[in-house]
Fold this protein.
Amino acid sequence: MADALSVIPASVLRNLSDKLYEKRKNAALDIEGIVKQLAAAGDHDKITAVINLLTTEFTYSPQANHRKGGLIGLAAATVGLTSEAAQHLEQIVPPVLNSFSDQDSRVRYYACEALYNIAKVVRGDFIVFFNQIFDALCKLSADSDANVQSAAHLLDRLVKDIVTESDQFSIEEFIPLLRERMNVLNPYVRQFLVGWITVLDSVPDIDMLGFLPDFLDGLFNMLSDSSHEIRQQADSALSEFLQEIKNSPSVDYGRMAEILVQRASSPDEFTRLTAITWINEFVKLGGDQLVPYYADILGAILPCISDKEEKIRVVARETNDELRAIKADPAEGFDIGSILSIARSELSSEWEATRIEALHWISTLLNRHRPEVLTYLDDIFDTLLKALSDSSDEVVLLVLEVHACIAKDPQHFRELVVFLVNKFRVDNSLLKKRGALIIRQLCVLLDAERVYRELSTILEGEADLDFACIMVQALNLILLTASELSGLRDLLKQSLVNPSGKDLFVCLYASWCHSPMAIISLCLLAQTYQHASSVIQSLVEEDINVKFLVQLDKLIRLLETPIFAYLRLQLLEPGRYIWLLKALYGLLMLLPQQSAAFKILRTRLKAVPSYSFNSEQLKRTSSGNPHSQMLNRMPSGQQITEDGDLNQDFSNLSLQNGINFASTLQLFEHMQRQHRMHSKSQSISRNSSISQSQELQRLDETRPTSQVPDVSRPPSRSTRRGPGQLQL
């Protein structure tokens, strides 16, 4: 310090700390001249002493004017050193940087001014302090004082110029600092950061693209900034990087894909659109690099397919189609389990479009990698089964397609049908609303006969008799009306002549016994008319209730549809199809005369011609009906078989084409006895409950009450009387 005092006059030091700027400026000029002389003489020891004096006595002084003088003095000393300033920068720059955090805004301003002048002198030698200067400028860009901000901007522009022309700048050392600052929310700092990213990216010798994963998330974070200008700057920077990616032969897609996946679920619409656009380009460009990230990408795409913004939906759908078109191999890192996990989770999405695409993915994987998918079946099967209750018909149809693909294996087919029956049992509304859709689609996707056989086998042993009856009626209605089951109906029509038809008839009969009307319908379809008549004759009073009559009404109306055209045409030969006629008359006798079904069936029977009867059959009754006695009068020792042919051996009538009709009738009667007993037990239970409630009510009414009425309370229901009634 003594050396410094010997070369710097006391008046100069005094003026350097003066409150007037002009005096400080003049003192700085004196110091510049002194340092210049010392530099010319090569006396660097004294120069060091001068710098130390300015640092310790001025820049670190508790008095603001001293600190201001010290900063301007250091800048003057640097100017005096000119080309030799580089060797003294270690002493000059740190105290200036320290002043950037001074409490006095004027001190911070002079620090910017001092560093600006220092940088102009040393230029490229200044780069060694770049990280510290960048960090200081980052903070000053958000300074509360406008003058300080303005000075910082000037310094920032100069530093950018120095960096762009320097070959000593280390991007590797700078990136960690940039990555740390990218999470700052201050808008001024964000503008500062984007500006630097853009400048550095414009330098040909600096590979910012290689470090893009380090600050990409920060740029995406700025897309949701409240400032339009910041959003625009961030978007512009991202667009430039995306273009560079398209033109670059080597890009680290993996790390960036992870960031994009997270940003695709951002609450900000613009951020989501930009992220999904990047993902779309990555899927096109990434190739094998993205295979391990397919599951994550799919998890980002599927929700966006149902986004409220149309632009996002369009890009997401395009990306989804491109991703699904890529035929990746598990050997290349394609994780089928992760893809299935994503698809399964998206099946619970509230958006229909997302659920549909998730099912398309499961279906695609089943078609391409069936063995591998089946190894994960336990993870997705329950979810797929629950999806059958989806509110969307399109989703249900796709779920059924997936199930049909899985159900090629007998074990899974059985599980599917058992689940369906259980689901229908628990949720009766599903059976009413979706039962026909589900069953018909299964019959299309799988073999209709196989589906009905399995359903019949399950329902045959159903413990819930009420449900079994409802389910059989639903299946019967589908069988009689669905165009998809025309082949099954054709097979049943051959039950008396075809072994396959016979086996199907016997299989269905076992469960169709739960519903009398279903059995009658099955017999009419299978042309086992004699057995149909026997079933009708076996009905007792308890069987003919409102539900039965409703089902009978449906059947009569179905008889007028094209499906039963063959049956109506058979009525042209009443002599051959005598049991058909008897069965139809039996149904007519069960219908109330006032009902529309009665009138429909009676009108149809009146149209039956009488010309095919023999003389015995043509004898009219007193009522004029040519068919009444014909039903019971046949030539002695002869009977009509199911198809109307005469058969002399009456004992063989109970066994035709291997069908033991006597046994089947016993099975039907046994099942109906169970239903009647079940109905009686339910009725007794209901009556018992009603009796108990009535008894409790009677006890309440007869319970003694207080002699003094409570006039503050309204009269109870038992004491109220209508108009004209006395109240005792």
User: Anything to note?
Assistant: The mean pLDDT is 85.
